[in-house]
Amino acid sequence: MEMSRSSFRLLLLGFLLVSSYAASDSVYDTFVQCLSNHSAPSHQASSIVYAQTNSSFTNVLRSYIRNERFNTSSTPKPLIIVTPSDESQVQAAIICSRDIGILLKIRSGGHDYDGLSYVSDIPFFILDMFNLRSINVNITDETAWVQAGATLGELYYRIWEKSSVHGFPAGVCPTLGVGGHLSGGGYGNMLRKHGLSIDHIVDAQIINVNGSILDRKSMGEDLFWAIRGGGGASFGVILSYKVKLVRVPEIVTVFRVEKTLAQNATDLVYQWQHITDKIDNDLFMRLLLQPIMVKSDNGSAKAQKSSKTVRETFISLFLGDATRLVSVMNKDFPELGLKKEDFMEMSWIESVLYWANFNNGTSVNVLLNRTLESEKYFKAKSDHVQKPISKDGLEGLWKKMIELGKTGWCSIHTEGE
Ligand SMILES: Cc1cc2nc3c(=O)[nH]c(=O)nc-3n(C[C@H](O)[C@H](O)[C@H](O)COP(=O)(O)OP(=O)(O)OC[C@H]3O[C@@H](n4cnc5c(N)ncnc54)[C@H](O)[C@@H]3O)c2cc1C
């Protein structure tokens, strides 16, 4: 009896799979037909649309899944994936999804913490922007037009190709997509000096639900304001942003220093909270808190014992040279006890690699690699601490982190004044 019940379940599952594939096939045909009707005759619509039955479907889908939590067999899959290579195909894809009545999820870099760009509980298509990633840097007027499917690494690289004294204030992870990152805000290690990425957007191209391409002038200031922080997908498909570059010095300075609880870390974190928003605006200091195991050395190897502690890592970017950083640190944060030997001078683009955890001497070309990290299972959340945490509060935090053990990490940084 049990045997036949499970056979029945398998049969039912098979039937559901077949019927979902069949449904996706007919949606595919309707969509491709609609796309052909709305595209230039030279465009072969079928070459940019992947049905579930296409042997490349899974590969294309997974290419920009950056969180393993959403890379399981039970994660809802799109009926089709559209990968436009020019704006007219994006226009056609929007019109056709609207006409067929299927939700269109827009994906640029795929780094959404909750997979919002490629997961949905109702039937959906994915509009994958990875082919739209051209970057046009104009050093004369210090701007760049960057398409939504470009990564931050590609943007940093193209700026560096043209100038060693320009940069852009955005995230520290080079594979973040411009489409999601810039429409959501964008903070990075030049935050204190230059604010968010969106503070440097001067124009944009967006396609609305009717398939019209709008720029800043034709969309109006309200919509232009909304797509700088409100998340692009609520308003249309962002094609590209025009950003104003910022000046960076020829030489910047970085440091990374680790302290454990036994090294007075609680006092340092407490102190850090009081100075980090007032210290020189050229200095950004991120604090990374992690529970770790340490070996206590009782003389003989046999007597070594492992115990848990919390490690604080101060990671920093200073927009200036090491000599000036020494005087900034001596004046405002002498408790950290840093000397010039603890600092490393480098170019701004090298600091991008340093912050992305590449070894010293790694070629800048690595920024053009769109699939750098191995995907992980994770859940991330941000909170905004408005008043310094008391020493008791910090000790409570350490206790919880040690108790939980493997919690990933917790990072604190400040926006400054
Ligand atoms: C490992 C990691 C590191 C991160 N580091 C930082 C950091 O240093 N600083 C920081 O500020 N943030 C950081 N983030 C958060 C990140 O900026 C956001 O998750 C951002 O939305 C990712 O953009 P994306 O294009 O890569 O993601 P996607 O998943 O492609 O898109 C995110 C959202 O934007 C929408 N969207 C994407 N493209 C478009 C488009 N062209 N038009 C309209 N809507 C669109 C999607 O539909 C989705 O809702 C990090 C995230 C991860 C996972």
UniProtKB/TrEMBL annotation:
Keywords: Signal. InterPro entries: FAD-bd_PCMH, FAD-bd_PCMH-like_sf, FAD-bd_PCMH_sub1, FAD-bd_PCMH_sub2, Oxid_FAD_bind_N. Residues 1-22 form the signal peptide. SUPFAM superfamilies: FAD-binding/transporter-associated domain-like (SSF56176). Transmembrane segments: none annotated. The keyword Lyase does not apply. Pfam families: FAD_binding_4. Its cofactor is FAD. The keyword Signal applies. Residues 74-248 form the FAD-binding PCMH-type domain. This is FAD-binding PCMH-type domain-containing protein. The lineage of its organism: Eukaryota, Viridiplantae, Streptophyta, Embryophyta, Tracheophyta.
